[in-house]
Amino acid sequence: MAGNGTIAIIGGTGKLGAAIARRLAKAGRTVVIGSRSAESASAKATELGFGLTGMSNADAAQAGDVVIVTVPFDAQDATLADIRPHVAGKLVVDTTVPLVPPKVMRVQMPAEGSAAVRTQKALGEGVRIASAFHSVAGHKLITDRDIECDVLVFGDDKADRQIVVELADAMGLRGVHGGALVNSAAAEALTSVLIFINKTYQVDGAGIRITGDLIPPAA
């Protein structure tokens, strides 16, 4: 499956990107970290270990079979423009949450309906898009502790969603199919709710769990 190829983490020097990169590399996956600065990416890769390598975002996107975009909302447009020439035919996993400071505890969705749909439109036809990892706290994921958190995975192709579900499972989380890409709006909006819960109840990185006995869908 494509998830066993090279995984590129775009914006991999940030909290979430670095945490995903470390977890996947520790699980034995081949992972490259991208950043606007190749030097910063290389330094972060050395810091994290587990055989990680660092390069520019564009070079990482070119090297990756699966490309995971982990940049803030205000960097989304520029980052997607940078990697667009290098992702044709690939699976791009968008983690972007449309947070608009300073009101990050209020849901503020973009005109397209979700950050994931913005990504789909920006990268154009021929690029496979999924979205995930919206409600996982990077500062907890970077550690070795067990995190009881589900990862909702969205995308219009079931096989592509399954790739991301398996990556989440490899990271010690639980990937759960969440349906079509437009459904990503629900998880993206939920992030603002979780930030509010963190502040109101003094929680160190609230996450989500889906109740019930989930039977994995047939291939």
Describe the protein's architecture and organization.
The chain has helices at residues 15-26, 38-48, 57-63, 76-83, 115-123, 138-141, 158-170, 184-201; strands at residues 7-10, 31-35, 53-56, 66-69, 91-94, 128-131, 150-155, 174-179. It has 219 residues and is an alpha/beta fold. The chain has one domain (2-201): 3-Layer(aba) Sandwich (Rossmann fold), CATH 3.40.50.720. Strands 3-2-1-4-5-6-7-8 form an eight-stranded mixed sheet. α1 (15-26) links the parallel β1 and β2. The mean pLDDT is 95.
Write a short abstract of this structure.
The chain has 219 residues and is an alpha/beta fold.
Topology:
Layout: E1 7-10, H1 15-26, E2 31-35, H2 38-48, E3 53-56, H3 57-63, E4 66-69, H4 76-83, E5 91-94, H5 115-123, E6 128-131, H6 138-141, E7 150-155, H7 158-170, E8 174-179, H8 184-201
Parallel strand pairs: 1-2, 1-4, 2-3, 4-5, 5-6, 7-8
Antiparallel strand pairs: 6-7
